[in-house]
Amino acid sequence: xxxxxxxxxxxxxxxxxxxxxxxxxxxxxxxxxxxxxxxxxxxxxxxxxxxxxxxxxxxxxxxxxxxxxxxxxxxxxxxxxxxxxxxxxxxxxxxxxxxxxxxxxxxxxxxxxxxx
Length: 116
Fold this sequence. Notes:
single chain, 116 residues, 0% strand
């Protein structure tokens, strides 16, 4: 348990040598953790910006979807116009008239194309 002066000096030199070696090994450590911290902050800000943009896009899409749904629901609820049925019949009649008119034109062309 007794320490002679040589042993105390050796312990003191080993302690000082440990401090010096540790100081040299970790001298750049301050810059490293700051760099890692700043990179993490930049990454988090980028993720937050991306999240904000997506939320805005989703809100816009949801608004459009709700508008389409309300228009679709309004179209389903509205009763069919009875005039629409007559317009369908009218369209059929007009299509038939067009077909007859086209046949007449073809017949007229055939008569004009007869050899002399």
